[in-house]
Amino acid sequence: MQDAATTIQAGLWERDAAGRALYRLSLLLALLGGAVLLAMIGVSVWSVVGRWLADSPVQGDFELVQLGCAVCVATFLPLCQLEKGHVIVDFFTLKASAGVRAWLDAIGSVLLGLCSALVAWRLTLGLESVRSAGETSMILDLPIWYGYAPMVVSFAVLALAGFYVAWAELAYRSAE
Question: Where are the domains of the chain?
Fold first, then answer.
């Protein structure tokens, strides 16, 4: 049985232009992450088959997969937040009113937004550091900052998504 709190959570972003724009940006990031994931699968299969058939694996395959994993995780997070897809342990709030749950969800979303903004800031500093140092991967000699760039954008968008969901949860809850 669905209650008002569950109903409002679905498609929260659909209610205004800012939410729809943030959703489109988050979807674009998730699609980018999906493309990276497919590329990682291709590299892994190519490497295993090459090792098996011709004793010729893809050089640096683990570097590419390692970099791709970090990018994938980061790019999927903003869409997950907007869709309210994060795991929620509601054991203690199961019998709370919809208003109390909305406030707790909003507080959680603000905390997620703050933490994500902090991570985006630190990733930006890290990007500048490894870029100015010219740090590269050991085998492929790929600049390490290539992996940082999409993660900075993803965590910045995740911060916006967190703040947006907190605002929308409270704004639309009080309007009902």
Answer: 16-175
